[in-house]
Amino acid sequence: MCQADSRPSRRAFLGATGTVTAVGLSAGCQSSSAPPDRSDAPAPTPPVSAVGRHQAGITLPQPAQRNLLAVVADLVDEVPVRPLLAELGEAIRTLTAGTDARLMGLPPGDLTVTIGVGPRLVRTVDPALPGAKDLPRFSRERIASRARGGDLLIQICAGDALVVPVVTAALLERAGDRIRERWRQSGVRGANVPVARGRAAPRNLFGFVDGIVGPHTRAEQERDLWLSGPAPVADGTLAVLRRMELDLPRFAKLSVAEQEAVFGRRRATGVPLSGGPIASGPDLGAKTPDGRYLVPADAHARRAHATAVGVGLMLRRSYSIDGAAPGLLFMSFQNDIRTFTNTLTHMDNSDALLEFTTTTASASFLILPGFDEERPLGSRLFR
């Protein structure tokens, strides 16, 4: 996938879209003498409602769609926030419903669009609100100034890769010159591996199953994912984005056993080195007969473990990226930013996985509560 640090021109977008469309059309052409057989055509992808208590694109749909584009932007000058968010929310409703002409006939399928606002905008309302603090700096970062922070997150996810750039263009057109793009990153999720009944997780570029542990039950999500107060942010959540380059060649030189020691899980199955089913967390106290920990002291599964850190669970969604260097777009959602910051601080001390990563972009956002026709997007926070 490609990445850019500035907003493409309309001509560049149309040129790229035209190329993709032409390839898609030529691949789908059939001789007029052989009409297509639609008896085995796949069933339409169920839509995901854009309205409700929470924004879509976090816990719904399950599993998450294969394709993502995250756009991070700033508001220009003193642009009023409330009208901009309301217009974006209206556009999201028509796009996900398939009634927006800017879809150019493409069915939206399981399209979701999720909107977040950065710390600077949250502080204009109340510096004490969740999401008002900027992320601290961590080790192993190589981040340009324009790739750190931002006022606005637009996250577009869809099963159909063609839908993503079309919807992105429609939303950026709606925002117009009121925003200035900082950076964007597209990504794709690997093949899903069954983790538990009704739940799956993808593999990452290292070959390991990613995002197994998290707040998956409703009770866990109410406790660790969704904000419960104060009222302007209730039913929202806090998002962290970290774009990382991965040192795949060096990791690939390790033996499978050494790779598994880095993660603390089996590469083929995803089960913890301490044993048990894939969905279970590792037994951090389990030892070999000679007293060695089955999950090494510097294994990622130990250093990032919620109990070891002393924080709640974070919902993690990672996307593989293919740019100048292979990488990962890491996203986490949690209702307390310390869940992320304390975890990464704990990892910074001695997590074997971090030796193979370099962070090149970082931002945090308050994901706004859900919306509908009567309650426009962002209206509870920006009055």
Please tell me about this protein's structure:
- The protein has helices at 10-28, 81-97, 119-125, 163-175, 218-224, 248-252, 256-263, 300-303, 306-309, 337-350; strands spanning 3-4, 67-75, 112-117, 152-158, 179-188, 192-196, 199-202, 237-246, 315-322, 326-334, 357-367.
- Helix content is 26%, strand content 21%.
- The chain is built from ten helices and eleven strands.
- Strand 9 (315-322) and strand 10 form a beta hairpin.
- Mean pLDDT is 90; it is low at 6-33.
- By secondary structure, it is of the alpha+beta class.
Topology (SSEs and partners):
Elements: E1 3-4, H1 10-28, E2 67-75, H2 81-97, E3 112-117, H3 119-125, E4 152-158, H4 163-175, E5 179-188, E6 192-196, E7 199-202, H5 218-224, E8 237-246, H6 248-252, H7 256-263, H8 300-303, H9 306-309, E9 315-322, E10 326-334, H10 337-350, E11 357-367
Antiparallel strand pairs: 1-5, 2-4, 2-5, 3-4, 3-11, 6-7, 8-10, 8-11, 9-10
The outline comes out as globular
User: Tally of extended strands?
Assistant: 11
Content-based structural category:
alpha+beta
> How many angstroms separate the termini?
38 Å
Residue-averaged pLDDT:
90
* Helical residue percent band: 25-40%
- Low-confidence blocks of residues: 6-33
Order of helices and strands: EHEHEHEHEEEHEHHHHEEHE
Evaluate the radius of gyration: 21 Å
